[in-house]
Amino acid sequence: MPDPRLSLRGVTKSFDDVQVLRGIDMDIAPGEMVCLIGASGSGKSTLLRCMNGLEPVDDGEVLLDGVDIAEPGFDLGPIRQRIGIVFQSFNLFPHMTAYDNVALAPRRVLGEEARERIEALFARFGLADHMRKYPDQLSGGQQQRVAVIRALAMRPQTMLLDEITSALDPELVGEVLDVLRRLRDDGMTMVLATHEMSFAREVADRVVFMDQGVVAEEGTPERIFSDPQRARTQQFLRSVAR
Amino acid sequence: MTRRAAYEAQQKRRANMIAGVSTMIVLALVIVLVPLAPGWEAVRASFFNGEVFVRVFPDLLRAFMLDVAIFAWSVPMIFALGLAIALARGNANPALFPLRIFGAVYVDLFRGIPVVLLVYLVGFGIPGLGLPRPWNSPYIWGTVALVLTYSAYVAEVLRSGIESIHASQRNAAICLGLSERDTMRYVILPQAIRRVVPANMNMLVALQKDVALLSFIGPVEILRQAGIFKSLLANFTPYVAAAVIFLCVTVPATRYADYLLNKDRDARS
User: Fold this and answer.
1) What are the tens digits of pLDDT across the range B201-226?
2) Closest Cα to residue A190, out of A22, A40, A52?
3) In chain A, which stretches have pLDDT less than 50?
4) The whole model's pTM is what?
5) N- or C-end of chain B: fewer Cβ atoms within 10 A?
């Protein structure tokens, strides 16, 4: 296995008295697509937010290309361009057009206008006609695709995707998942928290089942979905299969 | 027309008729009863004298232009200072902690003092230091008093606007690699300022009225001009005329602020 892009070593995180992550160890290889599954509250979102330093971890290490970014006081600014994150609720800036949402960070952080590159991204994901619209003029699926483009415009090496289809109407989920398929084909390293089991089964290199703040079971999609070993995994998969 | 629409139209006609009749009755009572008051003739002669009204109105209007001018040059200073204070209070940098304290004290102080008192204290006190012309002008120090008071209010309104922007917006900006400063400037502030436009409109209406307080320290603006006419003509009608002029400005402005508030509420519900 090549050197991992991202490694977690004994990561713990509590909010007040609630321990959300209880010692997570994980390696993510370059180009790998990892799907995190598990019930709400199992720690999937928190884990993603710890991977880019949005939530500081209490203990343990988060190694990005071998550098511990979880070290207290570490300057996360330069790191954040290398890890894109997309949220369940899009979080587009409502006062800016779709184009400006995407162009703001390249302009301010990279110091480049990047117009052609950004227009190419919009075209690639089927939004060329919507660049000048404001977020509230777009459907949920379109907004979420803009949010993905916004993260991609910073040329990240890794993308973290936090239940990005959970807030969408069922008929809009497909268009966003298509975007992820294309990113996977590009070789993007991705960690995806999701409730879309059939999608995880189709595209993931590895599926990680989280339960109560620990990795309860992990493996290839075939193994996890066809032959889960742990009782908790079996129970969870039965409950979502209905 | 559907059955429901016909029913609602009938209900509406009925409601309009009741409202009309009840308004007529109240108006008739006022018109009949008020002149029956023993002092009515005297009040009408000294407050509602048509001749005096016509005579003083153009001069009052001219004096009101001074109020408008003071208002106009105060507003940019109020918003610039208010924004600076709001940002000073919101900063989390330990090195700038004194700035934060200053912001808090500033707001407490100038929101806590009645405007009229501040106009007196600043307007008479500072020129009393023996400043040379033109630095002893009541225009300058009166404006300073208004700016101090209103920037404190505007700072609080802006701060509430900044705090009303959901943390997810800030997170999204930070995760893109934007600095704290750029996040505030490009993401938080534009949304916050838009959100508090209605509240600031109300503030501007109040300011337009409070400009008249500068009459106490010298400038012959509309209130003072009305006072001069009152003494000259031994009649209170100039004050009524001044009130009419104020209303011509403040009523449309308040209605516009209400409209913005409603629009904002509708957009968010």
Assistant:
1) 889 999 999 999 999 888 888 999 99
2) A52
3) none
4) 0.84
5) C
Q: B166-185, pLDDT tens digit by residue?
A: 999 999 999 999 999 999 99
Interhelix angle A140-152/A170-186, nearest 10 degrees: 20
Q: Do A151 and B176 touch (CB under 8 A)?
A: yes
Q: How far is CA A138 from CA A118, B77, B206, in A?
A: 18, 39, 39
pLDDT at site A1: 60
Q: Which two tokens stand for residue B140?
A: 């300058």
ipTM of the complex: 0.90
Residues B118, B104: Cα–Cα separation, whole Å: 18
Mean pLDDT over B184-188 rounds to 96
- Residue of A36, A37, A8, A38 whose CA lies nearest to A23: A8
What is the distance between the alpha carbons of residues B237 and B246, in angstroms, rounded to a whole number?
A: 14
Cβ contact (<8 Å) for A95 and B174? no
**Which residues on chain A are in Cβ contact (under 8 Å) with B169?**
91, 93
- Report the relative pairing of strands A59-64 and A6-15 from DSSP bridges: antiparallel
Alpha-helix runs per DSSP H in B165-221: 167-175, 180-182, 189-195, 197-210
Helix and strand counts by DSSP (H, E) for chain A: 9, 10
Measured N-to-C along each axis, helices B237-268 and B197-210 cross at an angle, to the nearest 10 degrees, of: 170
Reported for B224-227, long-range contacts at CB under 8 A and 24+ positions apart, including other chains, are: B224/B63, B225/B59, B225/B60, B225/B63, B226/B56, B226/B60, B226/B63
Q: Point out which residues pair with A33 in neighbouring strands.
A: A190
**CB pair distance less than 8 Å for B176 and A150:** yes
User: Which phi and psi (to 5°) does residue A133 adopt?
Assistant: -90, 155
Distance in Å, alpha carbon of A42 to nearest chain B alpha carbon: 21
∠ CA B142-B148-B152, rounded to 5° = 150
Shortest alpha-carbon distance between residue B56 and chain A (Å): 49
pLDDT band at residue B131 under the 50/70/90 scheme: confident
| CB nearest B175 (choices: A54, A78, A89) | A54
- Mutation target to probe the B interface, by most B beta carbons within 10 A, among A93, A152, A159, A162 is A93
